[in-house]
C-alpha cells in the first residue's frame, strides 16, 4: 500500500487523524477557563473546613518532633527544630478560639505567616490542595476584617480562609 503525500509531507489519512486529535484536545479545562485560582491547603478543624494559601505552607512534619515547653501559654504546644531553626509550635484550635478537634492532631504545618519567622501549627491530617477562584476570595476578604473569612464553594460547601498574620498577631487577641 502506497500513501500519497500532501504538501506538508504527511499522508492524507494521517493528516486527518492528527487534525481530529488536535480538535479534541484544543478546549481548555472548565476551571481554567472560568477564572484565575488561588491555591490553598485545605484541612479540617473539628467539624469545619479551613484553608491557608499554599504559598504560605512550607512543610508538613510529624507532631512527635515537638518538645513541650513548661509554663508556656495555652496556645503554645512547644518548640521544634526545622532546617536549623527553632520554631514555635502553636495550637491552631486554641488560636481559633477553642474549637475542638475531631481527631488528635498528628501533623504540624510549618507556615510563613508573613512577619519574618516561620511557625508551626497543629493539624489533624496533611492538607489537600484546592483551587478557589480569586474573585470569591477577594469578595470574602472585603466582607470581614478578621483573620477568618468564609467562602462558599460550589455545591454549597463552606471553607474558612485563614489570614495567618492576623490570626497570630497578639494585638488582635481581644478582638477574636
Structure description:
The N and C termini lie far apart (79 Å). The model has no long low-confidence stretch (mean pLDDT 81). This protein has a single domain (36-175), classed as OB fold (Dihydrolipoamide Acetyltransferase, E2P) (Beta Barrel), CATH 2.40.50. The protein contains 5 helices and 10 strands. With 176 residues, the chain is an alpha+beta fold. The chain is elongated, with a radius of gyration of 24 Å. A 5-stranded mixed β-sheet has the order 8-1-2-10-9. Helix content is 21%, strand content 35%. The protein has helices at residues 12-25, 30-34, 92-95, 134-143, 164-167; strands at 37-45, 48-53, 57-62, 76-82, 85-90, 107-111, 119-123, 128-133, 148-153, 157-162.
Task: List the SSEs and their pairings.
Blueprint: H1 12-25, H2 30-34, E1 37-45, E2 48-53, E3 57-62, E4 76-82, E5 85-90, H3 92-95, E6 107-111, E7 119-123, E8 128-133, H4 134-143, E9 148-153, E10 157-162, H5 164-167
Parallel strand pairs: 2-10, 5-7
Antiparallel strand pairs: 1-2, 1-8, 3-6, 4-5, 6-7, 9-10
- The unreliable regions are none
Order of helices and strands: HHEEEEEHEEEHEEH
Strand order of the largest sheet: 8-1-2-10-9
Q: How many domains comprise the coordinates? A: 1
Biggest sheet descriptor: 5 strands, mixed
Number of helices: 5
Please identify the structural class as seen in this structure. alpha+beta
Q: What is the CATH superfamily label?
A: CheA-289, Domain 4
Strand residue content: 35-45%
Q: What is Rg?
A: 24 Å
CATH class value: Mainly Beta
Helix content: 10-25%
What is the arithmetic mean of pLDDT?
81
Give the overall silhouette. elongated
| Distance, first to last CA | 79 Å
Q: How many β-strand stretches?
A: 10
- CATH level-3 fold name: OB fold (Dihydrolipoamide Acetyltransferase, E2P)
Q: Judging by the overall fold, what is the CATH architecture?
A: Beta Barrel
